[in-house]
Amino acid sequence: MDPKKINVKGLEKVFEELKRGEQASLGNFLYKGIRIQISKYKSSSAERYMKLYRNRREKGLCIRCGVKVTDKNPKTGKLYRLCPIHRETTDRKQKRPE
Ligand SMILES: [Zn+2]
After folding, report:
1. What's the 96 CA to ligand 1 centre distance in angstroms?
2. Which residues contact 17 (CB under 8 A, 6 or more apart)?
3. What is the pLDDT of residues 24-53, one digit of tens each?
4. Which parts of the chain are beta strand (E)?
5. At residue 36, what are phi and psi to the nearest 5 degrees?
6. Whole-angstrom Cα distance, residue 16 to residue 5?
7. What is the pTM of this model?
8. Residue 56 Cα, ligand 1 centroid: separation in angstroms?
9. Contacts of 31 (CB under 8 A, 6+ apart)
């Protein structure tokens, strides 16, 4: 993952979030040619999955496969969180009786 270039304001924001214990502070940052990596030490697979999920969601990618999602949900006006393929497979799963 390429580090995100930040200025001193951005750096302060990152540390503020870190102090508050917010997950938003996690990431790779580049400040004046110095790479700052803030990551969880020995994060569980569930946490890693949540991070991946969030990253994909923010970028408008399918949370399953990472493909760019271009369709919007007509009800909410927001992008779907799944690509057409995974939307279909997930829908099918939900229809199956438990
Ligand atoms: Zn997908």
Report:
1. 20
2. 24, 25
3. 788 899 999 999 998 877 778 888 888 888
4. 4-5, 27-31, 34-38
5. -120, 120
6. 17
7. 0.47
8. 11
9. 5, 6, 7, 8, 10, 11
